[in-house]
Amino acid sequence: MSSHVWCHGTNCHKSHTTDRVRGSKGSKVLRTRKVKQTEWNTGDRRNMFSYFCSNGCYNDFANANIERIVAIAPRTEPLETPIEVVKETATDWHNQPYVRTKIVAVDNNGE
Ligand SMILES: [Zn+2]
Question: Quick check: pTM over 0.90?
Answer without folding.
Answer: no
